[in-house]
């Protein structure tokens, strides 16, 4: 009996899948078993491409890619941005081209605060940063508005409360109601368009945006950015009367005046007619008392003027006026009498001026002639000086050419017997031992004659000295400095 183990037959190998078949089967299994799940995580990144949202969910140890299409993203009431902790509902799906699975989301909700509250806080912070809530931009509501525009639902309780308060406080007002939906899909767009349309129409003293109480979902249209911006750019002063006193919406913060209820908004528009009547009566009484006081003061003044002292002063003042008028009349007559003489003198001066006018004109013409001749004289003088200068330079050039000094400059010399005033012209004019002076271009030489003679015709002018001259042919001369021994 052998103790070696008997090998068992090998199992059948699994069927090989192609990559596409495997990805397809895994994708079907994910869509079937994980078609409705909820995942909690923090949004790591969020990108919008083509209206769709591509984002990543992460926690401390893992991350998951997700996508939400544009149609579902429009239903998310708040702004999705990195750092938010959310609950994402959707289904798992496999992206076959890359072999990665992702979460297809159809709903995103924040963790903790509700979606509407988060959207409210985000929009509030954004508009506050733009300055839409600043008190400096809010306008005063007119004390008595004649034409009132109301944006609300025509079937709600808010419009009935507003009309009731307006009729009770002041009848005869012009009221324009712009009917809109105040809750549900499309309500925000209708409210924003109503505000813009009433501004385009114009002619209203005040605009009321009103709605009765309700849940946060019912008040959501008044937390919409479109409604807030329409109210912010309204040229008509706006009053918001939305919900109850505890309800605060974005429209309340942007409006020029926030009222806790629609009825309170109506009360802020106009004052009570009885109050106005009472104020008008008070003003009428005060005006009558003021007029009576002014009349009494004027009557007392005229009574004082009617007394004897007042009339006497008036008589003195009248006499003073008469004297001033007489003096003014006399001065006027004197001025009128002197005026013809003064005018005649002025006329004579004008006549003399006219007579001197031709000479004045002739003076200008002669000045021009003198100036022209002066210019001509200067020109001729300059040309004459130039001609004389050229002639002088020509004469100087000729003199320089004929000057003995110019000849010396070309290498010639002049010899003379010492103490004589004429130049030596022949070697026969000197004898051996005579002292002579040789004038060069620069300086002079004093020499003693050692020999004389006549050079050959073919001898060079500046040749070398013969070492031993012939007996009957002496060297021309030998020169040396004054004081040199022979």
What is the quaternary state of this protein? single chain
In the CATH hierarchy, the architecture of the largest domain is 3-Layer(aba) Sandwich
- Supply Rg: 64 Å
* Residue fraction in strands: 15-25%
Element order, helices and strands? HEEEHEEHEHEHEHEHEHHHHEEE
| E-strand count | 13
Specify the structural class. alpha/beta
Q: CATH homologous superfamily of the largest domain - what is it? A: Lumazine/riboflavin synthase
Ends distance: 159 Å
Notes on the structure:
- By secondary structure, the chain is of the alpha/beta class.
- The chain folds into 5 domains: 19-112, Nucleic acid-binding proteins (OB fold (Dihydrolipoamide Acetyltransferase, E2P)); 139-271, Rossmann fold (3-Layer(aba) Sandwich), CATH 3.40.50; 275-306; 307-402; 404-486, no CATH class.
- Helices cover 45% and strands 18% of the residues.
- It is built from 11 helices and 13 strands.
- The strands form 3 sheets. A 5-stranded mixed barrel has the order 1-2-3-5-4. It has a 5-stranded parallel sheet with strand order 7-6-8-9-10, with helices on both faces.
- Strand 6 (147-152), helix 4 and strand 7 form a beta-alpha-beta unit.
- Helix 4 (157-169) runs parallel beside helix 8 and helix 5 packs parallel to helix 6 (225-232).
- The chain starts with 18 loop residues before the first helix and ends in a 38-residue tail after the last strand.
Summed up, what is this model?
The chain is an alpha/beta fold and 486 residues long. Helix content is 45%, strand content 18%.
Describe the secondary-structure layout.
Blueprint: H1 19-33, E1 37-49, E2 52-58, E3 63-68, H2 70-73, E4 85-95, E5 100-110, H3 115-130, E6 147-152, H4 157-169, E7 174-179, H5 187-201, E8 206-211, H6 225-232, E9 238-242, H7 250-254, E10 257-259, H8 262-269, H9 273-305, H10 308-402, H11 404-409, E11 414-417, E12 435-439, E13 444-448
Parallel strand pairs: 3-5, 6-7, 6-8, 8-9, 9-10
Antiparallel strand pairs: 1-2, 1-4, 2-3, 4-5, 11-12, 12-13
């Amino acid at each position: 009996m052998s103790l070696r183990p008997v090998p068992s037959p090998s199992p059948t190998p699994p069927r090989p899948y192609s990559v596409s078949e495997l990805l397809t089967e895994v994708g079907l299994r994910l869509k079937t078993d994980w078609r409705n799940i909820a995942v909690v995580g923090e949004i790591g990144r969020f990108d919008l491409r083509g209206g769709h949202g591509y984002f990543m969910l992460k926690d401390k140890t893992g991350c998951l890619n997700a996508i939400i299409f544009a149609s579902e993203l429009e239903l998310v009431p708040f702004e999705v941005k990195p750092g938010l902790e959310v609950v994402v509902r959707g289904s798992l799906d496999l992206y076959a081209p890359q072999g990665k699975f992702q979460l297809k989301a159809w709903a995103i909700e924040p963790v903790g605060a509700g979606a509407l509250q988060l959207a409210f806080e985000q929009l509030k912070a954004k508009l506050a940063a733009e300055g839409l809530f600043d008190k400096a931009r809010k306008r005063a509501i007119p004390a008595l508005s004649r034409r009132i525009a109301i944006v609300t639902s025509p079937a709600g309780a808010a419009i009935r409360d507003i009309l009731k308060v307006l009729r009770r406080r002041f009848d005869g007002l012009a009221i324009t109601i712009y009917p809109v939906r105040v809750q549900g899909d499309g309500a925000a767009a209708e409210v924003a368009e109503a505000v813009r349309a009433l501004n385009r129409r114009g002619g209203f003293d005040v605009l009321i945006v009103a709605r009765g109480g309700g849940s946060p979902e019912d008040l959501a249209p008044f937390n919409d950015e479109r409604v807030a911006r329409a109210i912010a750019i309204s040229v008509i002063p706006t009053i918001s009367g939305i919900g109850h006193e505890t309800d605060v919406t974005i429209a309340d913060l942007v409006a020029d005046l926030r009222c806790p209820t629609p009825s309170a908004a109506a009360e802020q528009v106009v004052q009570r007619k009885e109050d106005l009547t009472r104020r008008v009566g008070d003003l009428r009484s005060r005006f009558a008392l003021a007029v009576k006081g002014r009349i009494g003061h004027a009557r007392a003044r005229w009574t004082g003027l009617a007394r004897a002292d007042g009339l006497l002063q008036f008589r003195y003042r009248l006499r003073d006026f008469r004297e001033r008028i007489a003096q003014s009349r006399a001065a006027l007559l004197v001025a009128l009498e002197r005026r013809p003489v003064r005018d005649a003198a002025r006329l004579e001066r004008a006549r003399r001026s006219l007579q001197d006018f031709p000479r004045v004109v002739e003076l200008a013409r002669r000045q021009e002639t003198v100036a022209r001749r002066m210019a001509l004289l200067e020109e001729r003088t300059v040309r004459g000086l130039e001609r004389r200068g050229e002639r002088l330079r020509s004469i100087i050039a000729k003199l320089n050419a004929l000057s003995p000094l110019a000849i010396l400059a070309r290498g010639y010399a002049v010899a003379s017997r010492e103490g004589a005033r004429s130049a030596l012209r022949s070697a026969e004019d000197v004898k051996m031992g005579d002292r002579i002076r040789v004038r060069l271009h620069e300086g002079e030489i004093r020499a003693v004659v050692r020999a004389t003679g006549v050079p050959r015709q073919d001898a060079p002018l500046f040749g070398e000295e013969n070492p031993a001259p012939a007996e009957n042919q002496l060297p021309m001369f030998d020169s040396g400095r004054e004081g040199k021994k022979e």
